[in-house]
Amino acid sequence: MLRTLGGLFLEGAPFAKRRPLLLLAYLLLEGPASRRFLSELFWPRAQDAYNSLSVALSALRRLGVQVEGEEVVEAQGEVDARLLLQALKEEALERARDLYRGRFLEGADDGLPEELEEWVWTTRERLALSLWEGHRRRARRLKALGEPEEAHRLEALALALPGVKEAASEGDGDEDPPLDQACRRLFHAIALVGLPQAAAVFKPAPEALEALWQRGFLDGRGEATFRPPLNLEARQTALELARHLPLAQAAPLYRLALPLWRPEDVERGRRALLDRVRQDLEDRPLEALEALASLAPDPEVLLLRSRTLIRLGRFREALELLEELADTPERSALRGIALYRMGRVGEAKNELPKAEAGGPHAQGEAYNLEGLLLLGEGAFREAAEAFSRAAVRFLLAGEEARHLSALNNRAVALAELGKGEEAFFELLALVEGRPLLEARVRLNLGVVRERAGRVEEAEGLYRDSLELARLAGNLEAMGRAWNNLGALYHRTGRPQEAQKAYEEALKLAREARDLVLLAAVLANRAELTGERAFLEEAVRVLEESGQESLARRYRDRLERL
What we know:
By secondary structure, this protein is mainly α. 71% of the residues lie in helices and 2% in strands. The strands form two sheets. A three-stranded antiparallel sheet has the order 3-5-4. Strands 1-2 form a two-stranded antiparallel sheet. Helix 1 crosses helix 3 (49-62), helix 17 (315-322) runs antiparallel to helix 18 (329-341) and helix 25 (455-472) runs antiparallel to helix 26. The protein is globular, with a radius of gyration of 30 Å.
C-alpha cells in the first residue's frame, strides 16, 4: 500500500525517489490521465518531460506496481488517502483516525512545480476537512441523542489530529434539534438488533423511521450508521428487547441490561445467559467466565465456572471451586478432568464410576477421560472406542463442540494405529464452515504428518490452522499453531523462524491467559535459546495453576538444560 498520510513511502519497498511515488499517489487518487498532462504537471521545465515520465513509470513497474496504458496512464493499488475517504463514507471514524497518521504528503512537498504543489495543498485540505466533517456530523447526532460529553470528546479527538484544526470550519456551531424519546429508543433498538426485530418489538410509526433516515441515523438499508454509547436509555431498550426475543438472541441483551433486571426478569435472563455460556465455553472461555461472574453463584453457575476454568488451564482454581459443591456425577466428571490434568491419575480414575452414573454430559466427560487415560497407556484401540462413546454422549447432551472434540481425540488414537488419515478426513468434512473446529483438526493432523516425516505438509497444515484460528478470532488456537510452527522450525534447523514463531505464541498465550500453552511455549523457547529463565518461569506457571505432573516433567528438563 502507498502511504501518503504523514509522509510518502510504498510499504515493503525500500525506494526513496520522491517523484515516481508522487506520480503514483496522483494516479491512485485522481484516476487515469494522459501522458501529456502528466508530463506537464510533473516536469513542466524538463527538456524531455515525456522521457522523465517514462523513467518514473519504469521505476514503479520495477517495484511491482501495476501501471498500464500508452497514451492514457492508469495505476492499480491501494493508497491510504483513498481508504481514509472510504472509511469516512462508511462512518468508520476510528478506522479513519488510525489511517490518518499525519498531513497528506507531509515532508514530501518541497520544491514541487506550482500546479503540482497546488494539487498537494488542495488534497491536503480536502482530506483534513473531510475528517473534521465526518466527526462533526457524528457529534451533532450524539448531541441529538442526549450525549453532549461524548460529542465533545469525539470533536476533541478530531481537532487533535495534524492539520484538522486549521481545516475545521469557523462558526460551524449549528446543532441538530434533539430527538424525541420514541425516536431515541427506536434508534438504540435498531443499533442493537437491526430494523426487523426492533420494528417487531416497538412497532414504530413510519414517520419515526423517516426522521431517523433523513437525519443520518439510518442508512438506505435501514441500518444504524453508528453504534451509540450504551447509556441508561440504551440499556433500558436492551431489556425491553430481551423480554420479547427468543432466548438465543436475548442473551447479550439481558447481559447489557443486567443492573436493570426486575424480579420477573431473573429466571428468563439467567437461563438465556447460561445457555449462551454453554455455547461460548469451548471457543470463548474468557467471555464465558466474565458472563458467569455477573450471576449469583448457585450450583449450576459454579459447575459452569469450573468447566470454564478447566478450559483455561486453571485446574487448581477449578478443583477448589468444585469442593464447594455437593457430590454429584457432574461434579465427579469435572473433578476427574482437573485431577487428570494435574497429574493425579489415580484420583482421577476414582471419579469415573460416579461420573458414568450421571446424565449424558457427565458420561461424555467420563468416557473422554477414560480415552485419555487409555491413550497414555498405549491402548490406542480401546482409547478410540472410549472417545466414540464420549462423542455419542456429548451429542445426546447437545454439546456439539465437545462431540467434535471427542471425535478429534478418536482420530488421534486411530492415527497411532495407522488409521488416522481417514478419520481426520471424515472429521474435516464434519467441521467444514466452522473455522475454529477445523483449525484444531488441522493442527492435530499436522502433528501426525510431522511425526511421519512429512514436514512440508505439516507446516502447511499448521499455517492453515493459524489462518482458520485467526478467522475465528481465537487467541489460544492461534497461539498453539504458532507454537507448533516454532517447534517444527527448531527441529528442522531454522532457529530465527522458530524464535519469531515462539514470540507470537507467547504473546497470544498471555493475552488468552492460557496457562498450559504459556508454559509449553516458555519451555520450547528455553530449549531453543538455552536460557534457563524461560523454563523456570514455565515451572512456576504450572505449579501455581496446580499442574503438578507437567511441572515435574519441566523440572526434569530444567535439570538437563
